[in-house]
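Archive maintenance. Older records in this collection stored only the sequence; we are now back-filling the structure field for every entry so that each record is complete. The fields below show one back-filled record exactly as it appears after the update. Entries are processed alphabetically, and Kynureninase is next in the queue.

ARCHIVE ENTRY
Title: Kynureninase
Organism field: Flavobacterium chungangensis
Length field: 424
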Amino acid sequence: MTFQNTREFARELDSKDTLNHYQEQFIFPKVNDKRVIYFTGNSLGLQPKRTKAYVDEIMDDWANLAVEGHFYAEKPWWDYQERFAEPLSKIVGALPSEVTVMNTLTVNLHLLMVSFYQPKGKRYKIICEEKAFPSDQYMFQSQVNFHGYRTEDAIVEIKRREGEHNIRLEDVLAKIEEVGDELALVLIGGVNYYTGQVFDIKTITAAGQKAGAKVGWDLAHAAGNIKLELHDWNVDFAAWCSYKYMNSGPGNASGCFVHEKHHNSDLPRFAGWWGHNKERRFKMEPNFDPVHGADGWQISNLPVLSLAPYLASVEMFAEVGMDTLIAKRDHITSYLEFILHEIDKEVESTFEIITPSNPEERASQLSVFLHGEGRALFDYLMKNGVITDWREPNVIRLAPVPLYCSYEDMYDFGQILKKGILGK
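Back-filled structure field:
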């Protein structure tokens, strides 16, 4: 399709968009009494209007049933998490038994590393990406220190080539081969939070396992954003947060994946009563008998008030389907890319999009280096109703989330961006 940088063209695209009506199912902040253009769904998704009813249902059950809500609420609390198995399995490409919800993201990655990072002899090294999200970096450091290793020996970062913004697949594979029989674990972000680069999960997983390592993925920026086939790709484990592309609310519950092949294994784990045999859980038995599947990694009873917004979200995803979501994601991201290039022609500053231009290597994010601009432009955008994200030294991250961003939003953003540069 040949794009045009006009309001009429953007509105025409919106009129043909089968997801356009979903904008009305979200609550937008306002700036100057006008609905914002929201580009930070890669940090915190907007609140779906249906969410409140899900939370209110639990509040009402708590008020009316108190402790009996565990068993007699319309959605009993003691098995509330089981409602996620089917819709989440479709979002991440898993069997229902391979997914669960619990805790928060870094907590779950730590817990999964108890099972899947088992350094022994010379096989103790972890491969991760350079400039991973800081929480992952802190996790790696504390994990290897806990096992008695030095971070500089045990953590191997795959680096970008000089002058390049993204990591090449061949460099990942070469590093895995180089570390070889010293490699215990590969754990990478499925989508790099800074650049928006999407990694080849299938190929990297196969390479890591061929080298004798376990392979896991931090899918914070991937779940609900990219096509995942975790079961078929033979991924050992994964975890993700729910508050970015899945709009479950700030700091909300994390999802976990544990491949079926590990469900009957004797992998070590930190246990708790909610992971115990469901049918015998309330018998208070002294010895741990884990639930079969990913639910067996649960520890404490789950905070259903936190799960309620997440359930509202995954049911919306079930309505839409990932294929439909991804089709719009690719199209609206391409239109945003076009708008940026068009505005670039009209101003003296230079926009360098550091996210890969290949649609196979990107999702719902464009990270833009604003050469010749600084923090003042970001401040201008925010004051004029464009909610975006600033990263030093002068990068803005733009996430045109397909559920609630419109093509007209992309056009309006371009006009505000141009005015902010020309009017300084």
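Update note: The radius of gyration is 23 Å. The mean pLDDT is 96.
Entry marked complete.
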